[in-house]
Design brief:
The chain is an all-alpha fold. The protein has one domain (2-132). It has helices spanning 2-28, 38-61, 66-91, 101-132. Helix 1 packs antiparallel against helix 2, helix 2 packs antiparallel against helix 3 (66-91) and helix 3 packs antiparallel against helix 4 (101-132). The chain starts with a helix and ends in a 9-residue tail after the last helix.
Length: 141
């Protein structure tokens, strides 16, 4: 089960990295439209949560330390925060639908939160990899 934990956490990291590509595709698609972000949204709201849950289950079944299991589930909460941060710029738009300073701050926090989530997943991959290493002879651990 430890190998599955490593594999699932690594796949989760790869999907998180790919999210940046999908965001860029949305940003650079011409003509601009909300549809340009469809794959980014689907991946963020369906694929990443499913992978996070599977990774957390694998961590628990691999008898990972509680802190590592907590780190494994944290991306789910960060993903929910992502959805909120993505919606808030529109909620704070001016009457004509234009951007406001507050809306742009929330949009920027969407990007910062994504970076935080990637760092959390990197920590999970590292923890899973350490857990999967064989214990050296004569070393208690």
């Amino acid at each position: 089960m430890r190998r599955a934990f490593v594999v699932l956490s690594s796949i989760t990291l790869a999907v998180f990295a790919f999210q940046f590509v999908l965001a860029a595709v949305g940003a650079f698609t011409e003509p601009a439209s909300e549809d340009a972000y469809a794959w980014h949204s689907i991946t963020g709201m369906a694929v990443i949560p499913a992978l996070t849950l599977l990774t957390t289950l694998a961590a628990a079944l691999a008898r990972a330390p509680g802190r590592l299991i907590g780190l494994a589930i944290l991306p789910l909460g960060l993903t929910l925060l992502q959805a909120l941060l993505a919606a808030l710029p529109d909620a704070f738009a001016d009457p004509a639908g234009g951007s406001t300073t507050l809306g742009l701050v929330f949009g920027g926090l969407h990007a910062v939160n994504a970076i935080v989530a990637v760092h959390v997943v990197v920590a999970v991959v590292r923890g899973a990899s350490r857990l999967d290493r064989p214990v050296e002879a004569g070393v208690a651990g």
